Amino acid sequence: MPDPNTQPPALSAATTTALPGASQAAPTAATLTTVPAINPSGGVKADTGPRDLAIGGGVWLVLVIAFFFAKTGYANMLVGKRVAPRSANASGWWLFILLTSLATGGVLAVVDQERFLAPIYIAGFVGVALLALILMLMTGRR
Description:
Number of strands: 0
Helix content: 55-70%
Distance between the termini: 62 Å
Structural class: mainly alpha
Largest sheet: none
Order of helices and strands: HHHHHH
């Protein structure tokens, strides 16, 4: 940011006439020293574009694929510890839901912070994650 104590350079008459739609009058000191309004929330509100959504969707898809492999590995580990295969598979699916819920909340929060960091969204993702955690631990017992 420029130093607020310094004055911006004055525009010459040749510069102002070269601009399309510029008037012939020289700029005044009041027009040269106006400062744009500062947003009290600390930033400029930017709209979420399709590029941001595509990148977020791609990251989410890669995470879901990785979580699927983690689910399979977790279920196989439980079977190796003498847990019934049906219970191990169910526990693996609950792990998948837990991780996917957390990843969805995280990706949405990064893509559009103003909209998806609202308590209603965070509470939903955390609620699903906690329920999945409890069910994963209960079904993964011997």
